[in-house]
Amino acid sequence: QLQASGGGLVQAGGSLRLSCAAASAGRTFSNYRVGWFRQAPGKEREFVSAISWSGGSTYYADSVKGRFTISRDNAKNTVYLQMNSLKPEDTAVYYCAAGISYSGRGYASGQEYDSWGQGTLVTVSS
């Protein structure tokens, strides 16, 4: 089970750090890739960022590259998304997801993840 937190209201140009904590429940969190997705009102869910099980590989959507940084602390069963230089268009509910098997669709595909958190709302005011 995944728990996303850290969302809130911030002015444009500000920063937030999201956390995705896993209650392993018998699973080894360090075996899972973790991704962040977001869904803005009236829009489809979109990929934001992902990190491999070891943390050695990271992936970003073009829209957040250079502003967001994903990292993980497997000892704490937690993945972080540091969001800097936030823009109003970053406003959305942010979801974290975890997956272990890989079918080749790519880390940006929601189908590569089988566990999803409940989401945390990020609102960026102009």
Give the structural class: mainly beta
The total count of helices amounts to 0
Radius of gyration: 14 Å
Backbone shape: globular
Average of pLDDT? 93
Q: Tell me the series of helices and strands, N- to C-terminal.
A: EEEEEEEEEEE
For the sheet with most strands, the description reads: 7 strands, mixed
Residue runs with pLDDT of under 50 for 5 or more positions: none
Estimate percent helicity.
under 10%
Estimated share of beta-strand residues: over 45%
> What's the count of strands?
11
For the termini, the CA-CA separation is 34 Å
Summarize the structure.
It is built from no helices and eleven strands. By secondary structure, it is an all-beta fold. The protein starts with a strand and ends with a strand.
Question: What would you note in describing this structure?
Answer:
With 126 residues, the chain is mostly beta strands. Helices cover 0% and strands 47% of the residues. It contains no helices and 11 strands. The strands form 2 sheets. Strands 2, 4, 5, 6, 9, 10 and 11 form a 7-stranded mixed beta sheet that branches. Strands 1-3-8-7 form a 4-stranded antiparallel beta sheet, with no helix packed on it. A hairpin with a 6-residue loop joins strand 4 and strand 5. It starts with a strand and ends with a strand.
Task: Pick out its properties.
single chain; 126 residues; mainly beta; seven-stranded mixed β-sheet; four-stranded antiparallel β-sheet; 11 strands; 47% strand; globular
Layout of helices and strands:
Layout: E1 2-5, E2 8-11, E3 16-22, E4 33-39, E5 46-51, E6 58-60, E7 68-73, E8 78-83, E9 92-99, E10 115-116, E11 120-125
Parallel strand pairs: 2-11
Antiparallel strand pairs: 1-3, 3-8, 4-5, 4-9, 5-6, 7-8, 9-10, 9-11
